[in-house]
Amino acid sequence: MAMKRAGVSAIRALCSSPNLTRRVHSTAGSKKIVGVFYKANEYAELNPNFVGTVERGLGIRDWLESQGHQYVVTDDKEGSDCELEKHLSDLHVLITTPFHPAYVTAERIKKAKNLQLLLTAGIGSDHIDLKAAAEAGLTVAEVTGSNVVSVAEDELMRILILVRNFLPGYHQVINGDWNVAGIAHRAYDLEGKTVGTVGAGRIGRLLLQRLKPFNCNLLYHDRIKIDPELEVQTGAKFEEDLDVMLPKCDIIVLNTPLTEKTRGMLDKERISKLKKGVLIVNNARGALVDTQAVADACTSGHIGGYSGDVWFPQPAPKDHPWRYMPNQAMTPHISGTTIDAQLRYAAGTKDMLDRYFKGEEFPLQNYIVKEGVLAPQYR
Amino acid sequence: MAMKRAGVSAIRALCSSPNLTRRVHSTAGSKKIVGVFYKANEYAELNPNFVGTVERGLGIRDWLESQGHQYVVTDDKEGSDCELEKHLSDLHVLITTPFHPAYVTAERIKKAKNLQLLLTAGIGSDHIDLKAAAEAGLTVAEVTGSNVVSVAEDELMRILILVRNFLPGYHQVINGDWNVAGIAHRAYDLEGKTVGTVGAGRIGRLLLQRLKPFNCNLLYHDRIKIDPELEVQTGAKFEEDLDVMLPKCDIIVLNTPLTEKTRGMLDKERISKLKKGVLIVNNARGALVDTQAVADACTSGHIGGYSGDVWFPQPAPKDHPWRYMPNQAMTPHISGTTIDAQLRYAAGTKDMLDRYFKGEEFPLQNYIVKEGVLAPQYR
């Protein structure tokens, strides 16, 4: 944590960057906390648990203000005149989410001279320049686990939507048509198909467990093997070489964080080696794949269907090719922000703020950058 | 089977109808077989396994004709001038499907004086007047089990589509919008919700198995309890009284055959007692529910979402209210006619024809009406 300055330099010695900016952090006193969330607008009053919004601000305003802290919330995060920019110079803590990401660039980190702590309400902090955050000696933390079930459920939904060719049927209904053949000629059972997950972290493992009763051939690729007990329980087979696994799959699910190593991993060349008609689900990050290569392969039919809720950038512009490519089942970034997930990541964010004020450690698995040192998977 | 005439009268004595028409059946000689399927049209050539169509006719034409039988296939099944009507007077076997149902009325059965056998390529024979078929001493059989996995998978997809509020997100994408709040305010995790299945036959049990890893509270109502081992495996709790179970459910799935007892079971009164915002999945039969009561409750919001692939009648007319009601995720009748299912029910239909020609029994579970006697669940 930021307050443990004594140990920081020793830890930093392990870090790749030689030019760390030493910031003087203190957890004592009144803090200015800024939260960037999506706006609920007319939906604000429809659900008392809709806490992950500008209107509700994670439900922590009274708690923060009663302790003398200042709390600003906004959805205005783009450009040099936005509300977020106005507060950069004096904020101590910035709370962001992956669903309406405030891109925390090196430049913004430089401006935010009092910044100590970047909290992601949710999972996935790639909207933050982690290298710059590490060099500035900051701490970046997520509410690890808060929405892994939410995302895994959503992935299984998307697999089924693609395998069973749901959307053409739905379109027939709303257009007044009825043509079973137009759906059935490319509708399949999930049973018996080969499903591979790229990444078997928390979300990937939950997906494998949920896939188990569907009697698929389950494969996974990761840096390390999953727990042997879980391997037996799910029947999933470890594939050490990604490029050996991918061409075996009828369905590929991306479950890996976006890092400099994984950016653009599913590019034109890799796609060309996949099975014709392969189905791809990506709720991880849009930039894991080459946007245009995916759109082209959906148009040619080499990719038989693509579904996910992640794009780059977000919000996706009106002319993003994935909005218009055939056989897509896309949504805005939604899978991790169910009402159930919001309640969990609001509680997790509050817990970390509380620990921060008290000078206590966070749960270890929450750290992405701990006092200037990147977590191993991001190095 | 029709060929075992010696035992028929004894069995018929057990049957409720006193006025059985005794037809003289013989399995020997050349037979005229008529199949009613949906047309593939421009999709026929897109998939070599697209066998459940007029164009492919279950892939049994060569086999039938090589044995001297006549095989007519059509999709023209409505009205007195349709192709089906032309063949009623001299057909011996009629093959139909639930996806493009030829309604086999008492009047049609009366016209079909040579008819011996009604085969349903798929599951669900309620498009046949079973009482009239029994009174005529006919045999009605399905390919039991051929698409139960297909339907159960589809049900889980629909549960997730409703719980997670998928379609509003998809609509935003294709309309060039991005409004996470418009989706998230009513998107939930499936985890922790109470899911009740009305009927725990083959499909209901497969659904419960697939729901197990989602950590829901699982309930089921049926005439009899499921196997104790499966009850332990799935954690599903038996509910003897339907009207006690239904108001407990966040999600209700219908998995019961359409009979005179179940027709219209989910009517206005029962709907009024459900939880506000309840989600309903019905891949069983459209006539299990009151069409207008469902549409009204979706409009009022009492039903939070309704998804299924069954309608009455089928094809659904252009002005069917379910096409236009809010929060629907409907498709044409598709869940049991995936390519995998088609291959299975084509094989099962061929197997029963083969047994019929040889004078052999069908697998016992396939019989809906056996030589004039209704299976117990249809009485």
From TrEMBL, chains A, B:
InterPro entries, per database record: D-isomer_2_OHA_DH_cat_dom, D-isomer_DH_CS, D-isomer_DH_CS1, D-isomer_DH_NAD-bd, FDH_NAD-dep, NAD(P)-bd_dom_sf
Domain named D-isomer specific 2-hydroxyacid dehydrogenase catalytic: residues: 64-361
Cross-referenced PROSITE patterns: D_2_HYDROXYACID_DH_1, D_2_HYDROXYACID_DH_2, D_2_HYDROXYACID_DH_3
Residues holding NAD(+): 202-203, 222, 257-261, 283, 309, 333-336
GO cellular component, as recorded: mitochondrion
Main location: mitochondrion
Reactions listed under catalytic activity: formate + NAD(+) = CO2 + NADH
Gene Ontology MF term list: formate dehydrogenase (NAD+) activity
Mitochondrion among keywords: yes
Residues noted as binding substrate in the record, renumbered to the chain: 123, 147
Keyword Hydrolase (UniProt): no
Site (Important for catalytic activity): 285, 333
Keyword terms: Mitochondrion, NAD, Oxidoreductase
Domain D-isomer specific 2-hydroxyacid dehydrogenase NAD-binding: 157-335
Quaternary context: Homodimer.
Family that this chain belongs to: Belongs to the D-isomer specific 2-hydroxyacid dehydrogenase family. FDH subfamily.
Function in brief: Catalyzes the NAD(+)-dependent oxidation of formate to carbon dioxide. Involved in the cell stress response.
Protein name, as recorded: Formate dehydrogenase, mitochondrial
Organism: Eucalyptus globulus
